[in-house]
């Protein structure tokens, strides 16, 4: 596994702030499901132990659809979904790589994933962590 560094990020208005431990270069997934495609979300998925919410919990609002497994969290002030608990990794956190602050990301590889056909893409019901 590559050396982990701490990346910081947050929503547009700055009320929601977080830290995530990940390599400087990492892979993200670009899901084509209805919500990810409409929000241009790039998934950096990590175990929950590598994610820390620093501020803004009181500004988060939740949205669930379909099976209700994924817990989509949005800033109630600016509407940005900077992170959430994904259906594919209920024991992890998906950080929107587009919400990371500049300065610590050395590069990212974007891998498309077929969220429109989730059951076929994840026949076991969940994904694995990549790093």
Shape descriptor? globular
Number of strands: 10
Q: What is the CATH top level name?
A: Mainly Beta
Beta-strand portion reads: 35-45%
As for the number of domains, it is 1
Helix content: under 10%
Rg estimate, integer Å: 14 Å
Which stretches are low in confidence, meaning pLDDT under 50 for 5 or more residues running?
none
Structure overview:
This protein is mainly beta. It has a single domain (5-121), classed as Metal Binding Protein, Guanine Nucleotide Exchange Factor, Chain A (Beta Complex), CATH 2.170.150. It is built from two helices and ten strands, in the order E-E-E-H-E-E-E-E-E-E-E-H. The longest helix has 6 residues, at 34-39.
Give descriptors for this structure.
globular, 7-stranded mixed beta sheet, 3-stranded antiparallel beta sheet, 2 helices, mainly beta, Metal Binding Protein, Guanine Nucleotide Exchange Factor, Chain A, 131 residues
């Amino acid at each position: 596994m590559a050396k982990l560094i701490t990346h910081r990020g947050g929503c547009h208005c700055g009320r929601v702030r977080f830290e995530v431990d990940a390599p400087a270069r990492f892979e993200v997934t670009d899901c084509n499901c209805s919500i990810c495609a409409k929000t241009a979300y790039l998934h950096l998925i990590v175990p929950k132990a590598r994610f820390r919410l620093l501020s803004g919990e009181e500004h988060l609002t939740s949205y669930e659809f379909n099976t209700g497994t994924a817990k989509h969290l949005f800033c109630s002030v600016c509407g940005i979904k900077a992170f959430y608990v994904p259906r594919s990794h209920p024991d992890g956190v998906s950080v929107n790589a587009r919400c990371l602050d500049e300065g610590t990301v050395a590069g990212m590889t974007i891998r498309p994933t077929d969220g429109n056909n989730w059951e076929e893409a994840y026949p076991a019901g969940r994904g694995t962590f990549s790093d």
